[in-house]
Amino acid sequence: MKRYNFQEFADRHQVVLIAPTFVDDDYWEPEAWSGKALFQAVGKLEQIGGLKAQRLYYYGYSAGGQCAALFYAYAPERVAAWAVHASGVYFEAAGWKKGVVPVMISCGVDDEERYVISRQFIFNYREAGGNVVWRPYPGKGHELTPEALQIARQFFADQFERLPVKYIGDDDTRMVYPLSEVRKIMMEYRNPL
After folding, report:
1. DSSP letters spanning 102-121
2. Which residues fall within 8 angstroms of residue 187, CB to CB, at 6 or more apart?
3. What pLDDT, in 10s, does the model give residues 150-190?
């Protein structure tokens, strides 16, 4: 929690942060057991705190990113948005029909395998109708950088503040267009800004 530094964000938006630690090596596979365990913990916190049940926001780095992506696929109806940095595992997004939520993905370009895996997921999720904010970091590897954390915090702040997408960036050309010109960019390269 301290490393990610989401405390100020949580206070500003009046949200509860949960940082689960799982004891099993397959914790990122929610169907096995961790999905049920997480939702039981969330239910208990809602009960103790007198909180109204709401959809969740997930963030994860590396294996935690795998967890965020797979937990969304496990129970998409329970998720409002999710973001990852340097994830190497995603669900199959080609033909995804379970509804889409906003996603933010970042990765170091020198983290080659995860970079390629992330790009393929982004193409497929966008083609299924999802919005993905994509931020590659040239010259960076697998490390979690302050810049990656800052863009994640901004992504979630935009979700809470319900800021509309005003611009579309082209992942390929790096050109930015007003939303009215979205058709200039192929769907799989559309980066909502």
Report:
1. -EEEEEETTSHHHHHHHHHH
2. 126, 127
3. 999 999 999 998 888 899 999 989 999 999 999 999 999 99
Helix, strand, coil share of the chain (percent; to 5): 40, 20, 40
Q: What is the mean pLDDT of the chain?
A: 91
Locus of tokens 């990656």: 148
Q: What is the pTM of this model?
A: 0.92
- The C-alpha atoms of residue 40 and residue 152 are separated, in whole angstroms, by 26
**Res. 27: pLDDT tops 80:** no
- SS3 (DSSP) at 163: coil
Single-letter residue type at 152: A
The pair of three-digit structure tokens given for residue 139, joined into one six-digit string: 């010259």
Q: What is the CA radius of gyration of the chain?
A: 16
Residue written as tokens 């948005």?
Answer: 81
Separation of alpha carbons 10 and 6, rounded Å? 6
Alpha helices in the chain (DSSP H): 7-13, 35-49, 63-74, 112-127, 146-160
